[in-house]
Amino acid sequence: LLDSLINTVDNPYIYKLELYHAATGNRFLVGDPGVASTPYLTTAPGDEKAVLTLSLNVPWINTEYVIYRYNDLSATWDSAGVSTMLVYTDTGLVNEQEYCYYIKTVGEYMKTGLPDNIINFSQQVCLTPFDNEAPCVPELQVSSNCDSLYNQLVWTLENQECYEDVAGYYVYSLAENEGEVSLLATINDRDIMQYRHGPLEVVAGCYEVSAFDLNGNESEHSMRICVDSCNYYEIPNVFTPNNDGANDILRAKTTGLVEKVDFKLFNRTGILVYQTSDPRLNWNGTYKGKLVGPGVYFYQCDVYENRIGGLQQFHLSGFIHVITEKGASPTIIEY
Predict the structure, then answer these.
(1) Any bridge partners for residue 173, and if so which?
(2) 248 and 239 in contact (C-beta within 8 Å)?
């Protein structure tokens, strides 16, 4: 039986053969007929490769699949490989060049007396490989420089093959560890695998990095790496409120992460001479409207700082040397 004038390129076909007992007045189906489909080949282009997938439904067991690829130079179909699986990847191809395939199936019934060496052929399918695959995901590390207020990002790639597919990197950032990152920088050089973010008012933040190739394929983002704020809050230990225009106001060195403080300043007899919640302190050296006397004052300070995990508190204590003489130098004094 020859089934002709059918479209085997776009559609697979399923067949079954039924046998009937045809005696007069006693017609019935003999046995349970098997169903067999034509092998149907679909393809998917990749980066220098073709992924071939065979679909079929047959009552026998296929033992191997022979993949044939058309050779333009010899105008013949050459065997490109043999597989026992329904999916086969043909690698080492040239992007933007057309390749054509078909697959031969070889099978047999497992029951004695039934046919063996059953051969079928799929339709012929052509495709053109192109770079539609993203590079490998970079592995990111982040460290903070608290003195200079910047974060240093460094990343690596898995292997040389990953590196060869990369054209550059996208650097993403986020102020907190929740929400979507935004693009911070684009690096159009695969050899540059680091980025310095700063100087910053706040070093706390989260980062992700991805790689992209020349065709614009972007990898998945790296694992998100978060760095917390440095505990940067410094209270001067020398203060000269002598109206000479220098160091006349006691001010703390702080960052925008400090939301508030509980600062208390005591004289040597234990009297509270100044209290504030202002992170900058901004004390003019007076107590009840009058300038305090020179000497050493003791402070206690609770600092409330916004960090990745929320508002956190740390405690400081120390001494402040108040100098009221004109021309006094605000030299740091060690206690």
Answers:
(1) 182, 207
(2) no
**Strands across the sheet with 295-307, in order?**
238-239, 310-322, 295-307, 258-266, 272-276
Instruction: Please state the pTM of the whole predicted model.
Output: 0.61
Partners of residue 36 on adjacent β-strands: 15
Pairing status of strand 238-239 against strand 310-322: parallel
pLDDT of residue 177: 67
Q: Are 301 and 254 in contact (CB under 8 A)?
A: no
What is the Cα Rg of the chain in Å? 39
End-to-end CA distance of the chain: 106
**Residue 58 scores a pLDDT above 50:** yes
H/E segment holding residue 177: none
Tokens representing 213?
Answer: 């190739």
Please tell me what DSSP assigns to residue 221. Answer: P
Quick one: tokens of 122? Answer: 């799929």
- Comparing CA positions, the residue from 263, 268, 335, 317 lying closest to residue 295 is 268
Contact 151, 143 (CB under 8 A): yes
C-alpha to C-alpha distance for 237 and 33, rounded to whole angstroms: 98
